[in-house]
Amino acid sequence: MSFNPNFRDLQAYPFSKLKTLNEGIVGNPNLTHIPLTLGEPKHTPPQFVIDALANRAQLPQFLSSYPLTKGSDGLRQAIAQWLQKRFAVAVSSEHEILPVNGTREALFSFAQAMLSGIPGSRVIMPNPFYQIYEGAALLAGAQPLLVDQDPDNAYRQDFSHIDAATWRNVELVYICSPGNPTGQIMSTTQQQALIELAHKYDFYIAADECYSELYYDNKPVSLLAASAAMGNPNYARCVVFHSLSKRSNLPGLRSGFVAGDAQLLGTYLQYRTYHGCALSPHHQFASALAWQDEQHVIENRAMYQAKFAAVTPILAPHYALQQPHGGFYHWLPTPMDEQAFSQQLLEQFNVSVLPGTFLGRNGIRGNPGHKHVRIAWVAPIEDCLEAASRLAEFAIKHF
Q: What are the residue boundaries of the structural domains of the chain, listed by start?
């Protein structure tokens, strides 16, 4: 029996690695387990979305028809209005927006539709990263090219070491801002420099902006806004990916969108028509309501801001803490090996965190996730405070 030969290059998913790492380890039975590994929002979803999904009078209508792959006019118009209001960009609801089943599905399938499969093609991605970028590239027959995010560069991506010969083989660049796991935000200047390279060397940019509504000082800019500001109003070579998972606490809805270059989205729509992955009609209806409301997003962001304000003074005396500019993670430096840190923290204090090397690969100077762990502050604030206190106790005990 044969399979796609590119499967052999895939690594286990980070949480599978974590399960293997923790086999046989029993968390301290005197303490309640607090998991801080999975970036799964736990705040309460908007009630009006729940009500819309549970509307028995509308369900028969929604369930008795096939959904349009392109999405409903109402949903695309709601997304276009949100993009205009949030980023001050004019995006055509007819040609430049495509609803998708969350950013994970779209970030993966976009590469399958757009990459050529020509030997030697490269896909650039941050390191550490969301592992979907790597899997998407490998299964489409391309090779990942990692851009390290090192602490001595404030965890920013630096593309300066990539030479012209390498750029000519690049077909796609993934960026993530705010970043997972670093929380770094790419500036307009940085994004525009990348757009100039995309035009010069003939590649596309896929901007994962799913954390864009979780910020603490400055609002993240969108690749679309950076594109328009530099005289590229049709967003040529630029696409952005957004989701309701983090913004609206709706990870189970699996609802997001791709927006940008109309030519790219036309090809991607054709791919999705064959792929058969249209968002269900009642999910489209509820999603439109979510994009039209901003109050629940403001409240959600305030809860994360409160968490960081609460845990930072507890952790800062004991760790070289880097405050994220966005997202809901601390990318925490550890004074010891990150896998041993993770194991001992679980065993002694019953707190689970994700070793940074599981999110990275060996780059120019090794794996940038070494001596880092990712902490997802998604639990209720009381649990976050308790977990932060245990992390402080762990540091006092060991360092």
A: 13-39+296-398, 66-293
Beta bridge partners of 259: 97, 240
pLDDT band at 392 (very low <50, low <70, confident <90, very high): very high
User: What's the pTM?
Assistant: 0.96
How far apart are alpha carbons 211 and 39 in whole angstroms? Answer: 11
341 pLDDT more than 90 = yes
Domain 66-293 carries which CATH code?
A: 3.40.640.10
Which sign, positive or negative, has the C-alpha torsion 365, 369, 370, 371?
positive
Exposure of 47 by Cβ count < 10 A (0-12 exposed, 13-18 middle, 19+ buried)? exposed
Q: Classify 13-39+296-398 by CATH class.
A: alpha beta
pLDDT of 73 over the 90 cut: yes
Nearest to 242 by CA among 256, 224, 227: 256
**66 neighbors 278 (Cβ within 8 angstroms):** yes
Per-residue pLDDT averaged across 90-118, rounded? Answer: 97
pLDDT-based confidence at 126, cuts 50/70/90? very high
- 105: nearest Cα among 8, 232, 245: 245
Give per-residue pLDDT as tens, 261-305: 999 999 999 999 999 889 999 999 999 999 999 999 999 999 999
How distant, in Å, are the alpha carbons of 156, 226, 294 from that of 234?
A: 27, 12, 26
Per-residue 3-state assignment (H helix, E strand, C coil) for the chain: CCCCHHHHHCCCCHHHHHHHHCCCCCCCCCCCCEECCCCCCCCCCCHHHHHHHCCCCCHHHHHCCCCCCCCCHHHHHHHHHHHHHHHCCCCCCCCCEEEECHHHHHHHHHHHHHCCCCCCCEEEEEECCCCHHHHHHHHCCCEEEEEECCHHHCCCCCCCCCCHHHHCCEEEEEEECCCCCCCCCCCHHHHHHHHHHHHHHCCEEEEECCCCCCECCCCCCCHHHHHHHCCCCCCCCEEEEEEHHHHHCCHHHCCEEEEECHHHHHHHHHHHHHHCCCCCHHHHHHHHHHHHCCHHHHHHHHHHHHHHHHHHHHHCCCCCCCCCCECCEEEEECCCCHHHHHHHHHHHHCEECEEHHHHCCCEECECCCCCEEEEECCCCHHHHHHHHHHHHHHHHHHC
